[in-house]
Amino acid sequence: MIYIQTKNFFLSFGIIIPAGKNFLFILSQLIIFLSIVSILLVIVVLIIRLIDSYDQRRKNDFLNKWENDFYHYLGSPADPNTLLKGVKKSQYKYLLMVIRDLFSVLDGKDLESLKRIINETSVYEFLLNDLKSKKTKRIIRAAYFFGASGNQNVKSILFGHLYSNKTDVFIFCARALARINALEYATAILHAARFQKELSTDILISILLEFKSDVCNYLLERVVLEDDYYKRIAIQIFRFHGFREAAEIVLKIFQTSTNKKLLVECIKYAGSIECIDAIPQLWEHFEHPDIEVKTAAIEALAKIGGKELIPIFVQRLYEESFEVNIAAAEALFDSGEKGIKLLKVVAKSNSDSKAAKVARMILSENFIEIDDE
Amino acid sequence: MSEFIKILMIFNYIVLFYFLTLITIYIILNLVSFYKVLRYKNKIEFADLERIFKLKNYKPISIIVPAYNEGNNIVENVKSLLQLIYPQFQLVVVNDGSKDDTLQKLIENFSLKQISFHDLYKIKSEKINAVYKSKEIRNLTVVDKVNGGKADAINAGINVAKYPLITVIDADSILERDCLLKIAQPFIENENVVAVGGTIRIANGCEVKKGHIISVGLSKNWLARFQVVEYLRAFLFGRTGFDAINGILIISGAFSCFKRDAVVEIGGYRRGSIGEDMEIVMRLHKHFRKINPDTKITFIPDPICWTEAPESLKILMRQRTRWQKGTIESLLLHRDLLFNPNYGLMGLFVVPYYLIYEFFGPIIEFIGYLFFIVSLLLGILSLEFTIAFLAAAILYGIVLSILSVILEELSFKKYPKVSHLLTLFLTAIVENFGYRQLTTWWRFKGTIEFFLGKRSWGSMEKKGLSSNNI
Question: Does residue A364 sit within a domain?
């Protein structure tokens, strides 16, 4: 009975289990098939390796011939087309490999010479075709090189790719636009980013940080008109660039916003540019119910400094939240001799209290003895 | 007798069904992995991570290194870890009550000084005796604690971790210098990522100098070679494939990275766990996907961490039985994930896969071998059929192994010589004659031992990877 049920079960799954000789026949066919597949796969791997070795040899031959001229060319005003005279199109991939490795290590005149190879030779046409193609791999490669070489001619094509449904294409093209410092596309990048479901804020910020610091002026012009998301990202960019001109507008946002993430960004910005005008508002946020906001306010005030804040930091050592305690202890430490003295007093005061433990920890982490006086 | 024969037949059908479904799953995983690995490779080629991570909005990392009796290699390993490329990281070495001179060597070589300590997150661990910091190397912290096992040591490390990301590595792991850039990238790419696993490769046979892989090679020891092929299959296919459906259930303890706050929120690692690396991943899935269904635990196929594989049968057996016990323990602890549609394809497909093929797999395979022999002896199965079936199964295993070598060849090309490839092919064939059956037996043994209550971690002696060809 069970046997029949089992058999029916398998049959119900569509697995027809043949019996006897039929099964043996199928198995033997399967063995032949798998044997052939195994052998073919081994051949495939060996062919791949063979192609790779051949490619490597061609690359080495190319480099041996070309390397010397190339290093003479670097940093010189020579025409890059002369350098590429003997280079065939089929060798461009080796050329690009070399250039890619050098882009991250060269600077100054050498880097300029490298950029000229991309911008002023037939390599440009080669990469342009890549950029216009529909293949992600080719677009990514072209966007990388045009971005690294600061090519101004391809901005509109790169912009066209911003609305691609492939996140990788968006990232590489937006990054290229940013490296080119195409300011006019900064807002477009921010807007197109909203259509990328798989794009994180951190990646977007890393893209915008590729722009030169003048992107801040551009973002500042629009920040009031835009929504909280835009504001939050723009303020982060201001902070990373230490852009003080945004202080007035950021303070206004700080006064009116109820969005926690935006508040934290405003506070961090105020701290990073040591904005004295923000002190009263930062002070208010000392009492904010959210720990993240409160901690950010303490850290910001610690950066701005001012001896009158020291008693407030000491008070915060006795709060419930550890994050706040540690931020306060670090703020005291950063505020100099007086703060350190007070930390020592707290550390010695009541050895079992949390405040004393935190104070001792911060002092000891910085190798300051409590009883050294 | 006829009833017995019917049972035999039923079981043979079950084995057949098991085999056919496994083949189907592997084929799907293979296809997905080819797509994912090659896509990753295209992306990473021009990612320029080192430059991007200099753009200020990186996330600092605390690297936690649990160390137990690592006196021979600890100084060299710490020195090599301090050379990792990343804009800001803290190295936390946790001396888990070593009986050798691990702590003394650290104190002497890095001029450590005891500091006052207060655990930041109150995750439970055995008593911390002292915390040390180096005046010269400000990002080095050493925790000395009472022995409590790996999970416990990691918890102690988390308690002093300052940064938002924590990376947990084995003290004897050899890391690629840019591994932190690569493992931190998914956290930047996707805010919902709470954990990332890296690909582990076998370092036996590689030339190691000052904690870095100088040249990749293959060990002369067959056990180590078998594990090379096994790791290629497991990481390039298994994990990459499951990653596509957010179904990673295990990220290797040899190299993993987490959002610190996420780990703190779930109370850290489960102390005393046998398979702590799988258990924490399942718990993270369970906890965070309830709050946010988009929570992701992901995996990068880049080979960024190299580890020493056991070269003796005894130690390998201990490792495999422990892994099996760990799998069972985690599956039983989190059985509510099974067929649970709230966890998407992970609950509906991946957890049942682990239950059938990882938990019950060794039992079915082991009894399958026995029943095959009995069926053969009783004449239920003909010799031709048995040989043909085994040949088909072995050939299929070989095809899978070769596919993983192809994927390695198309993507990372870590094995430079043609002789390495030929050795890998040979290994893929030879492993089917004894090694696979042995691992099945060890996993079966692990299952039995688990239910008999033998659940200790067991010791894992290693030769060490310091500055030599191993």
Answer: yes
Nearest CA in chain B to A167: B189
Q: What pLDDT is recorded for position A86?
A: 80
How does pLDDT run across B98-139, given as a tens digit for each residue? 999 999 999 999 999 998 887 666 788 999 999 999 988 999
Is residue A147 assigned to a domain?
no
The whole-angstrom separation of Cα B338 and Cα B354 is 10
Please report which residue ranges of A245-290 form alpha helices under DSSP H: 247-256, 260-272, 279-284
Residue A351 lies in a domain: yes
Q: Please tell me the total number of residues recorded for chain A in this structure.
A: 373
Contact A263, A254 (CB under 8 A): yes
Q: Which residues of chain B register pLDDT less than 50? A: 469-470
With 0-12 / 13-18 / 19 or more C-beta atoms within 10 angstroms meaning exposed / middle / buried, residue B257 is buried
Six token digits for residue B203: 């370092």
Strand partners, B197: B256, B299
Contact B311, B219 (CB under 8 A): yes
CA distance B155 to B268: 6
- CA dist B28 and B241 (Å) reads 8
Model's pTM, two decimal places?
A: 0.86
Q: In angstroms, rounded to a whole number, what is the distance separating the alpha carbons of residues A201 and A218?
A: 19
- Is the Cβ–Cβ distance between B102 and B95 less than 8 Å? yes
Q: What is the pLDDT of residues A196-238, one digit of tens each?
A: 888 888 899 999 999 999 999 999 998 888 889 899 999 999 9
Distance separating alpha carbons of residues A284 and A267, to the nearest angstrom: 11
CB contact under 8 A, A42 and B425: yes
Q: What is the pLDDT of residues A249-270, one digit of tens each?
A: 999 999 898 899 999 999 999 9
Q: Centre a 10 Å sphere on the Cβ of residue A285 and count the other Cβ atoms it contains.
A: 22
Interface of A with B in 100-129 (CB under 8 A): 100, 103-104
At A36-90, the pLDDT tens digits run 988 898 898 889 889 988 988 888 888 888 888 888 888 888 888 988 888 888 8
Residues of B in contact with A205 (CB under 8 A): 57
Task: Report the percent of chain A where pLDDT is more than 70.
Answer: 93
B409 contacts on A by Cβ (under 8 Å): 45, 48-49, 52
Q: What is the pLDDT of residue B209?
A: 85
Domain that residue A358 falls in: 305-373
What's the burial of A218, exposed, middle or buried (CB within 10 Å: 0-12/13-18/19+)?
Answer: middle
**Structure tokens belonging to residue A236:** 């982060």
Q: Does B402 sit within 8 Å of A45, measured CB to CB? A: yes
In a domain, A245, yes or no: no
Q: CA A139, A142, A146: angle at the middle one, nearest 5?
A: 135
How large is the ipTM?
A: 0.79
User: Which tokens sit at B433?
Assistant: 């004659």
Q: Which of A21, A28, A32, A41 to mutate to test the interface with B (most CBs of B within 10 A)?
A: A41
Number of independent structural domains in chain A: 1
Q: Please, what's the b/e burial string for B47-68 (b: 16 or more CB within 10 A of its CB; e: otherwise)? A: bbbeebbeeebbbebbbbbbbb
Rounded to 5 degrees, φ, ψ at B314 are -60, -45
Phi, psi of A371 (to 5 degrees): -100, 35
Q: Angle between the A228-241 and A260-272 helix axes, to the nearest 10 degrees?
A: 20
B342, B289 Cβ separation under 8 angstroms:
yes
